């Protein structure tokens, strides 16, 4: 008889009706983590809404622990999180029930890069997809925007935009999510052009001016000038520009990292159409300062690309703002030749600086 009872119990359990007869606690499914995320894909900066309210467990859920694949976490049942870099991230929720049991669930979020480009005539900043679709546009309260870069300052990620502003030269700090201007600073010279952010020590926002013909290294928090480098400096330290035009007509500026070093600045000279690689040499004691040195031979870019308003490196290629053809052109930085890939169809009258947020 005992064997028959065991058999009946097993059959009832398999049929899913045991809970109704013997009680939910005896045959409950235990603790379950349930994730709800909207959206699960998009373009940076991407704000998601996350919720674990559907999670269940004996005596209810007492603890929620979220990780977002970025090193940050949260202990709320639900909320919002903004991804400020492109990539594929794993969102993980671990819940603890009243009886001490736990459960974990993960979901993948895919964040694509964004292309930020200024329009000098329309005083507008556009956020584009890599296909050229307009995702956002912000009208700026200062005029004639030129270079744009993404930088981290005061614990957040910001856009910095250099603006000629009809002679009252400014660099503004903009929230990339709302478009609100959160800082307004004087530019260090009379004709602001391109900007870039060096994310490794010594962390600097670098700016090139077309009238003073200098590169400026600036504090990323208050934009105080920490050092400037003009034509005479480079002619004395870098034989590559000893007898050629350099810093005459800035056509682009970018920074790329290097392992165990401070990285490189890349400067495009519009007069000669040459792309230069500049090594950043950090100071070695309190009495010295950051130095710059051109390394290797410059690369001549295809004349088809000029006049050019800005450059940025992404996914192993140089991207160039081609003013005449209203396009962002992918270029092989080793040869200076376009690859055939380009971004077109975006709005505006006079494209300016570019930053690919990645």
List keywords for this structure.
358 residues, mainly beta, Immunoglobulin-like, Neuraminidase, 2 domains, 5-stranded antiparallel beta sheet, 3 helices, elongated
Summarize the structure.
By secondary structure, the chain is mainly β.
Commentary on this structure:
- This protein has 3 helices and 29 strands.
- It has helices spanning 2-14, 18-22, 231-237, and strands at 36-38, 41-43, 46-51, 61-67, 73-74, 78-83, 87-97, 102-112, 114-119, 124-128, 134-139, 145-153, 156-163, 170-174, 181-186, 192-198, 204-209, 214-218, 225-230, 250-256, 264-269, 274-281, 291-294, 299-300, 308-314, 317-322, 327-332, 337-343, 351-357.
- The strands form 7 sheets. The chain has a 5-stranded mixed beta sheet, with no helix packed on it. Strands 20, 21, 22, 23 and 24 form a 5-stranded antiparallel beta sheet that branches.
- The radius of gyration is 27 Å and the shape is elongated.
- Residues 1-28 have low confidence and may be disordered.
In round numbers, the mean pLDDT is 91
Widest β-sheet, arrangement of strands = 2-8-7-4-5
Biggest β-sheet, characterized? Answer: 5 strands, mixed
Helix content: under 10%
As for the number of domains, it is 2
What would CATH call the architecture of the largest domain?
Answer: 6 Propeller
């Amino acid at each position: 008889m005992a064997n028959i009872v065991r058999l009946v119990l097993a059959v009832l359990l398999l049929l899913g009706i045991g809970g109704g007869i013997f009680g939910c606690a005896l045959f409950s499914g235990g603790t379950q983590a349930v994730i709800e995320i909207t959206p699960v894909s998009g373009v940076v900066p991407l704000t998601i809404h996350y919720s674990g309210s559907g999670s269940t467990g004996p005596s209810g859920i007492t603890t929620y622990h979220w990780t977002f694949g970025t090193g940050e976490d949260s202990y709320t049942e639900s909320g919002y999180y903004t991804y400020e870099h492109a990539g594929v991230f794993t969102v993980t929720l671990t819940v603890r029930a009243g009886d001490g049991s736990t459960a974990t669930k993960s979901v993948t979020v895919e964040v694509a890069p964004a292309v930020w480009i200024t329009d000098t005539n329309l005083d507008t900043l556009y956020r584009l997809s890599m296909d050229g679709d307009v995702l956002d546009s912000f009208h700026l309260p200062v005029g004639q925007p030129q270079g744009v870069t993404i930088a981290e300052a005061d614990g957040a990620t910001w856009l910095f935009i250099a603006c000629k502003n009809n002679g009252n030269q400014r660099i503004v700090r903009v929230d990339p999510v709302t478009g609100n201007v959160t800082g307004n600073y004087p530019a260090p010279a009379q004709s602001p052009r391109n900007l870039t952010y060096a994310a490794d020590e010594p962390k600097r926002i670098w700016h090139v001016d077309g009238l003073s013909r200098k590169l400026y290294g600036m504090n990323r928090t208050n934009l105080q000038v920490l050092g400037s480098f003009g034509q005479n400096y480079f002619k004395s330290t870098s034989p590559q520009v000893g007898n050629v035009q350099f810093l005459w007509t800035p056509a682009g500026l970018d920074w790329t990292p290097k392992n165990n070093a401070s990285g490189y600045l890349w400067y495009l000279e519009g007069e000669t159409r040459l792309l230069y690689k500049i090594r950043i040499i950090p100071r070695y004691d309190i009495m010295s300062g950051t130095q710059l040195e051109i390394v290797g031979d410059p690369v001549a870019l295809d004349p088809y690309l000029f006049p050019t308003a800005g450059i940025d490196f992404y996914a192993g290629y140089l991207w160039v703002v081609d003013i005449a053809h209203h396009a962002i052109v992918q270029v092989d930085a080793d040869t200076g030749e376009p690859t055939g890939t380009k971004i077109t169809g975006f709005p505006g009258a006079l494209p300016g600086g570019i930053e690919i947020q990645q």
